[in-house]
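Q: I'm writing up a methods section and want to include an example of the input and output format. Could you take the sequence below and give the corresponding predicted structure tokens, formatted cleanly so I can copy it straight into the document?
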Amino acid sequence: MLFPTTVFALFFAIVFSLHWGLERMPRLRKGVLLGASLFFYGYWSWKFALMLFASAVLNHAAACWIDRTAELRARRRGVAVAVAANLLVLGIFKYTGFLFTKLLVPLAVPLCARFGTTEQLITLQEQVLPVIEKIVLPVGISFYTFQALSYVADVYWRKTPVAASVLDFANYLAFFPQLVAGPIVRAADLLPQMGRFPDRSVRLDTGRAATLILGGLFKKMVVANWLAQHLADPVFAMPETYGAADLLLGVYAYALQIYCDFSAYSDIAIGCALLLGFHFPINFHAPYFAVTLQEFWRRWHISLSTWLRDYLYIPLGGSRGSAARTRVNLLLTFLLGGLWHGAGWTFVLWGAFHGLYLSLERVARRLMGLPEKPSENPGRLWALLGRVWIFHVVCFSWILFRSSSLPVAGELLRGLCRWEGDCRLLTGRALLVLGIGFALQLLDGMRPRPVWDRVNRWPAWLQGSVAAVILTLILGAGPSGVAPFIYFQF
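A: Here is the clean output for your methods example:
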């Protein structure tokens, strides 16, 4: 079920009415919300919903056992088993094909040729590949797996109490606004809200919710979809047919497409949760205004970058050891972050590039006598130069991220040297949409708060009327059809 559809609008209207209509029946209210979330997820496949519910039950049971156990070794074994089980399920669905076809088979071919067992390898492939092709990746499995892992780890570290009931935890894990593509909300942030559930004593922040939802729909349906359809997709589909100027324009378009697409989902998710009385932290904060790559990762997909920091980078040792160890920790963290995004060599190289660059950035700043963390006020000239440079560094990495294969990425990189011929994709409308996409970062964070506060003072009929008019304009301005969000594949 996609956000910008009539089906979701009808679904949300029903859930909203039941959620607030059952305020005096808290147990039933929680059950209805869980049922709605499972229905939302099961709209793709009932098997997905069943697996999600099983994950909720098993992870909550593991967390309860860890919480009750006093002996440290037993607790360590418990959390190790829970983490391994979650990663095993994720690995089976997401990485089986990659491991078999991209790692095991290429390694086995020369060995089988040497020992004369090539026919047996071919027979094995013929038997295994049909089984692998039947594996369907559940939508959003990476997101709710990370939430489950963080819950179990936080209970083990005594950072958060265990959920009061399996119903509360299941609502936390399956909450439909953020289920499929985040934000990756921590148990410490959302579980207490699932325990007490919001009531009508606090006025809903409808101004912020409406701004986020309508702004997200505009980002996705108008800007991201247009950039994909007219610039990014053609360039990445056939890079050999375009000159350097068109290729560069396509890369810029994808950089803004993925920002508008992903931040749109986060905005709509946060807005829908607000209308139900739940609060999420922000997930984007003008990432292309970053002066260093380190700052970029504090602004881009904040829930994932902080998750990788707290549950991978710091447990590996973080920056507590030597400089060399810190660089290794960074590289490992981003290699695994790349694999989290997808099972492919392009994602591995994308993660490796970010890890290596971050390591070199620390070294360069140290050699220049600069603090590892950039100053909040670096000066206008240095800020401008840093932003331009980091934007292009990130755009380079998006070539690896977006390309369907390494040969496609190589062809595009070679094409950036072909400065010949006309720029066929450069039009006034293209420049306008690119400019709008970049400027939409000004709506991130708390910048639009004066607008939210003003809208909150309007009567309900006026809020609804203005929202209806804006939604009609968005539907009219966007391309036909509904494209799925980019991060659904992760």
